[in-house]
Write a structure and sequence with these properties.
The chain is mainly alpha-helical. It has two domains: 79 residues, no CATH class; 119 residues, no CATH class. 65% of the residues lie in helices and 7% in strands. The chain contains nine helices and three strands, in the order H-H-E-E-E-H-H-H-H-H-H-H. The chain has a three-stranded mixed sheet. Helix 2 packs across helix 3. The longest helix is centred in the first third of the chain and has 34 residues. Bound molecules: zinc ion (ZN). Zinc ion (ZN) binds next to helix 3 and helix 5. The site of zinc ion has 4 residues, from helix 3 and helix 5.
Length: 230
């Protein structure tokens, strides 16, 4: 949060600068250049990922539209999201497909995760294997139910994001899942393995969660996917 502490001083020096009157024009120019370079690929990829997600997750959870607002002054590593009943509004400094799809997945998977949560919370021991990296990344803070809920939700969202974007390019998908696992999301591999079992274009069936949780337990007990990426 260092940058927020420095923000008032930055704003003052910006206003004192002789070029201040041009700053709005520069701001608009920065947004225009970013859109000119990346908009068509970004839109195409986000649309394609939305199509995959619509088939996989409950239709009722999908927003009617996804709107992106370019803000060149936004801290580069942050993507802000505002959700309304009809749309998801993504505020970002650059057009990054992955960030946008990640936020779409959060919105689309949330109702399902809420329904699933009592069953997920029956598997509190799953937190043990992933506890340390998750504390480090601040996705968990203790061994409570809400910590497990957070870890499972974020793991599923990251896997679904990679799936929506790369499921047709197997090698890239595997690389993405390996990178996610190395970051500390130790259940990414068993979760994607269960997604593989769903026929293309079909929704996630009701029994999917149970199979997924079992695959996570198997990965811990056999030391397979979980151990190999530690
Ligand atoms: Zn997330």
């Amino acid at each position: 949060m260092q940058w927020t502490a420095e923000l008032p001083e930055q704003i003052s020096s910006l206003r004192a600068a002789s070029q201040y009157e041009n700053s709005l024009l520069r701001y608009r120019e920065a947004a225009r250049l970013e859109a000119e370079k990346h908009w068509s690929v970004y839109r195409e990829q986000v649309d394609a990922a939305g199509h995959v997600l619509r088939a996989l997750l409950p239709a009722s959870a999908h927003p009617c539209s996804v709107c992106t607002i370019l803000n060149p002054l936004q801290a580069d590593q942050l993507t802000d999201v505002v959700t309304t009943k009809e749309s998801v509004i993504v505020v970002t400094s650059h057009l990054r497909t992955e960030s946008c799809v990640h936020e779409m997945v959060h919105v689309c998977a949330d109702p399902l995760l809420r329904d699933w949560m009592p069953r997920i919370l029956e598997h509190a021991d799953l937190l043990d294997a992933t506890y340390e990296p998750m504390v480090r990344m601040r996705y968990t803070w203790d061994r409570s139910a809400s910590s497990l809920a957070n870890v499972f939700s974020e793991t599923l969202v990251r896997v679904l994001t990679a799936w929506a974007l790369y499921h047709r390019t197997r090698e890239v998908l595997i690389q993405q899942i390996e990178a996610t696992t190395r970051e500390g999301f130790l259940y990414a591999a068993p979760v994607v393995e269960r997604l593989n079992a769903i026929a293309e274009g079909q929704p996630m069936p009701e029994h999917w969660l149970q199979e997924c949780l079992s695959a996570c337990h198997d990965a811990v007990s056999t030391g397979g996917s979980v151990q190999s990426h530690r």
